[in-house]
Write a structure and sequence with these properties.
The complex is a heterodimer. Chain A is an all-alpha fold. Chain A has one domain: Non-ribosomal Peptide Synthetase Peptidyl Carrier Protein, Chain A, CATH 1.10.1200.10. In chain A, 56% of the residues lie in helices and 0% in strands. By secondary structure, chain B is of the alpha/beta class. In chain B, the strands form 4 sheets. A 7-stranded mixed β-sheet of chain B has the order 4-12-11-10-7-5-6, sandwiched between helices. Classes of the chains: A mainly alpha, B alpha/beta. Chain A binds chain B through residues 1, 3-5, 7, 54, 57, 61, 64-65, 68-70, 72-75, 96, and chain B through 144, 149, 159, 165-170, 176, 179-180, 182-184, 186, 217-218, 377-378.
C-alpha cells in the first residue's frame, strides 16, 4: 500500500465541513433521484427515494470515487437516511488522511 | 390452532413472520392464475440419459442441467458408486473430523490434488458449503473482502456469515476492483473473490488482469470455478488455467454437482497452512460428510475428466453452434460470443419469459427460467446449458424448438 499513502495524505489536508460534503453529495444524487424527491436529512433511501439494490451500488460507487473512500456493505447497512450518509462520509473522508 | 390455509391470530399486534413474503406470493399467484405451468415445480419422472428425461409424461431434451460433461451415467462412475455402497454402506453418519473420513474421502481429495496440480484439497458436503466455509473462515474481523457484485449466493452468504468488511465492485470491472483495493486501510487483510464463469449470463471473468491487480495490491485471491471445471482450460481446470494464471490463485472453489455429476464441494490450495482449515472451518466440521458412494463416484469422474479432451472439444462445438443459430434467429443473448457451456437467452419480461419457457416444455425441451434476484440487472433469462453428450443432431432439434416457440410467443 506504499503507493496509496501520498494520495491519502493529500486528501487528508482537505478537512471538509459538513455543509460542503452535503453539497457534493447533493450533486451526486441528482441523476439517481429520478422522481425529483425533495431531499432532507431524514429522507430514507429505501422508502422516500425508492432506491433498489442496483441503484444503491451505482450511487455508492459514485460517492466512493468522489471522496476516495470505501463504504463497505457493513457500513451501508447502518445508513438508512440521507443525513446518516452525509455524517458517515464526513467521518470516512476525515479518517482517510488521519 | 389456525385452520389449514388460514392465518393464525397472534397475540397483540405481533406481525405474522410470513407477511414479508406476501409480495412474492402475490407475484407467483398472478403468474399461475394465467394457466401457466409452475416453472419451479417441474418433476422428472424418469431420467433416460444425461440429456433426456420424461417430464409430465413427455420425452424431453435436457438443456437446463449442469451436467456439462455428461458423467452422471458413465459406467465406470456408476460401478464405483455401487461398489462403495456395497463395501462402505449408505452413509458415514458423522463429521469429517470425527468418524466421517473414510478411505474414499481421502481418495477423492487425492484425485482433486492431481486434477488441479495443487498441494491441498478439502472436500465439503456441497459447493455452497465450500464457499460459505472458506470465505467466512479466512476473512475475519478487520479484513476486507472485495467481490464482484454478480457473485453467486453462496459467496454472498459466506461474506454474511463472517465478520470481514464486504466491498462489492461492478461486474468484471478491473478499474473498479483496483480503486477499491487501493482504498483499503494499510495493514488490513484482503481477499478478492472472483468467479471463472458467471452462471447467469455465461460470461467469463478477465481473471488474468484482475488477479494481476489483486496481487499488485497484496490481496489473496479466491476463484470459484464451479461452471468451468472439466470443460474450460487445457486440462479442464477452469478459466484461470485457460488464461494462464492458475498458479496465482490462492484458493479454487469447485463443486461435484456440475461437470463431476454428483454432489459435494471442494477447495484446492497451495497455501502451506491450508490443512488447519479442517479444524477451524465450521461448515466443514459441523455437518456430516458425504456418503461413500458419492465420494467414490466423484473421484472416478474427476480422474476421467483429466483425459476428456475430445468431450471438451465437442462441448465447445455444441456451444458455438447453438449460440450462432439462436443469434441468427434473432434472439437476444447474454454474451456476444459463446464463452462457456451456458447460453443465456434474454427475455423481454417475466410474463413472456414464463410463456416461452412453457412453450419450449411443450416442444419437449427443458431450459432454466432464471429471474431476479438470481439474475443481474433485473433480467428474466432462459438459461441453456449444453452437455458434451448432446449430439450435433440434438442441437439442431433444439434450434428448431426455439424457433417455433419464439414465434408462437412473439419474441422473434
Amino acid at each position: 500500500m506504499a503507493e496509496a499513502s501520498p494520495l491519502q495524505d493529500s486528501i487528508g489536508k482537505f478537512r471538509m465541513d459538513r455543509a460542503e460534503t452535503d453539497a457534493r453529495i447533493r450533486t451526486l444524487i441528482e441523476p439517481f433521484n429520478k422522481k425529483g424527491v425533495t431531499i432532507g436529512d431524514s429522507s430514507s433511501f429505501a422508502n422516500d427515494l425508492e432506491f433498489d439494490s442496483l441503484t444503491v451500488m451505482d450511487f455508492v460507487a459514485a460517492i466512493e470515487d468522489e471522496f476516495d473512500i470505501i463504504i463497505s456493505m457493513n457500513q451501508q447497512a447502518e445508513i438508512e437516511t440521507y443525513g446518516q450518509l452525509v455524517d458517515a462520509v464526513c467521518k470516512l473522508a476525515d479518517g482517510a488522511g488521519a | 390452532m389456525g385452520q389449514a390455509d388460514q392465518r393464525e391470530e397472534l397475540a397483540g399486534s405481533t406481525p405474522d413472520l410470513f407477511s414479508k413474503f406476501d409480495p412474492i406470493i402475490q407475484q407467483r399467484e398472478t403468474l399461475l392464475s394465467r394457466g401457466l405451468t409452475d416453472p419451479f415445480g417441474l418433476v422428472m419422472e424418469k431420467v433416460i440419459s444425461p440429456t433426456r428425461a420424461i417430464c409430465s409424461g413427455r420425452d424431453t431434451i435436457l438443456l437446463g442441467t449442469y451436467n456439462y460433461m455428461g458423467m452422471t451415467f458413465d459406467p465406470d462412475v456408476i460401478a464405483a458408486g455401487k461398489d462403495a455402497l456395497d463395501n462402505f454402506g449408505s452413509g458415514t453418519t458423522g463429521s469429517r473430523v470425527l468418524n466421517g473420513t473414510y478411505r474414499g474421502h481421502r481418495e477423492c481429495e487425492d484425485a482433486l490434488k492431481e486434477f488441479y496440480g495443487m498441494d491441498h484439497a478439502m472436500v465439503f458436503s456441497t459447493g455452497y458449503q465450500a464457499n460459505l466455509g472458506i470465505i467466512s473462515t479466512i476473512a475475519g474481523k478487520g479484513d476486507y473482502i472485495v467481490l464482484d457484485i454478480d457473485s453467486h449466493a453462496s459467496i454472498w452468504d459466506g461474506c454474511a456469515l463472517g465478520n470481514a468488511e464486504v466491498v462489492p465492485f461492478k461486474h468484471n470491472d478491473i478499474e473498479a476492483l483496483e480503486k477499491r483495493l487501493k482504498r483499503i486501510p494499510e495493514g488490513a487483510g484482503k481477499l478478492v473473490v472472483l468467479e471463472g464463469v458467471y452462471s447467469m449470463l455465461g460470461d467469463i471473468a478477465p481473471l488474468k488482469d484482475m488477479i494481476g491487480v489483486a496481487k499488485a495490491n497484496g490481496a489473496m485471491v479466491l476463484v470459484d470455478e464451479a461452471h468451468s471445471m472439466g470443460f474450460i482450460g487445457e486440462h479442464g481446470r477452469g478459466v484461470a488455467e485457460a488464461q494462464g494464471v492458475l498458479d496465482q490463485v490462492d484458493f479454487v472453489i469447485g463443486t461435484f454437482s456440475k461437470s463431476v455429476g454428483t454432489v459435494g464441494g471442494f477447495c484446492v490450495s497451495n497455501h502451506p497452512s491450508f490443512e488447519i482449515m479442517r479444524l477451524v472451518c465450521r461448515p466443514y466440521v459441523f455437518t456430516a460428510s458425504l456418503p461413500p458412494s458419492v465420494v467414490a463416484t466423484a473421484a472416478t469422474s474427476i480422474r476421467k475428466l483429466m483425459h476428456a479432451g475430445k468431450k471438451r472439444a465437442h462441448l465447445w462445438e455444441n456451444s458455438r453452434t447453438l449460440h450462432s443459430k439462436l443469434k441468427a434467429l434473432g434472439f437476444q443473448l447474454g454474451t456476444a460470443e459463446p464463452q462457456s457451456a451456458i447460453i443465456a437467452v434474454i427475455m423481454p419480461d417475466l410474463e413472456r419469459g414464463a410463456a416461452m419457457w412453457e412453450a419450449l416444455l411443450h416442444e419437449g425441451l427443458y431450459v432454466n427460467l432464471a429471474r431476479p434476484p438470481a439474475t443481474p440487472a433485473g433480467m428474466t433469462l432462459l438459461r441453456c446449458s449444453l452437455c458434451a453428450e448432446h449430439s450435433a443432431e440434438e442441437v439442431e432439434t433444439i434450434v428448431g424448438m426455439f424457433e417455433r416457440a419464439g414465434k408462437a410467443v412473439g419474441i422473434i
